[in-house]
Amino acid sequence: MFKKDATPGAKSKVKSSAQRAIRSKVLDEYPKLEPYIEDIMPKKEQLDLVKLPDRVSLYTLGSTPLFFQHMDDAFMPHLSLVHKYPSAFHRLRIDRGAIRFVLSGATLMVPGLTSAGGRLPNDPEDTEGTYGDEELEAGEVVVIESEGKENACFVGVLKMGTREMKKVKKGQACEAGHYLGDGLWGLNLG
């Protein structure tokens, strides 16, 4: 989605009524953000909307990017927000071999998640329960971490449910989203 450098367009202030609606929609989509929502989107602070190419809306607090949305799709967290609150999102893990493809903007394929280094929900290798025990469905927003790395590298929308991934072990796993080093990551909002 953001392979090319993104140039920010018009910046406008979000009305307080729209801000409340966005806040409640974000909490509906990411209920684990509840304890942090006052830090992320304080009621007394002004939320800004920055228009980006390809009908993408980026919601920011000052120069801090929070969420982006393509047309009327789901609100997706910016990676800087994911790095701050990693446990508040559904997470999956790719193996080392898939990292370079994801960071070059390629579509995330199922083998990167189902191989030995990858992790899906209910994985017997996941002794700490980091990736949860709830199977995810197609259309859900997920954060992708990489084997051996501390921070997440990708945010996208599942094209296939995790239960199906475990069965077929091939095909596209995630639609293109936002990854480290893409145009949205490098966007200068200062």
Commentary on this structure:
- The structure is a single chain.
- This protein has 6 helices and 10 strands.
- It is of the alpha+beta class.
- It has 2 domains: 11-84, Sulfate adenylyltransferase (Roll); 89-179, Sulfate adenylyltransferase.
- The protein has a 5-stranded antiparallel β-sheet. The protein has a 5-stranded mixed β-sheet with strand order 6-8-9-10-7.
- Strand 3 (56-61) and strand 4 form a beta hairpin.
- It is globular, with a radius of gyration of 16 Å.
- 33% of the residues are buried.
- The mean pLDDT is 91.
The largest beta-sheet arranges its strands as: 1-2-3-4-5
Runs with pLDDT <50, length 5+?
none
Reported for the largest beta sheet, the result is: 5 strands, antiparallel
**Percentage of β-strand residues:** 25-35%
Oligomer: single chain
Q: CATH architecture of the largest domain, please? A: Roll
Secondary-structure class:
alpha+beta
Shape type:
globular
Name of the top-level CATH class of the largest domain: Alpha Beta
Key words describing this protein structure:
Sulfate adenylyltransferase, 6 helices, 2 domains, five-stranded antiparallel beta sheet, 190 residues, 10 strands, single chain, alpha+beta
What topology emerges from the helices and strands here?
Elements: E1 11-13, H1 16-29, H2 37-40, E2 47-52, E3 56-61, E4 64-70, E5 76-77, H3 79-84, E6 91-94, H4 96-102, E7 108-109, H5 111-114, E8 141-146, E9 154-158, H6 162-168, E10 172-179
Parallel strand pairs: 6-8
Antiparallel strand pairs: 1-2, 2-3, 3-4, 4-5, 7-10, 8-9, 9-10
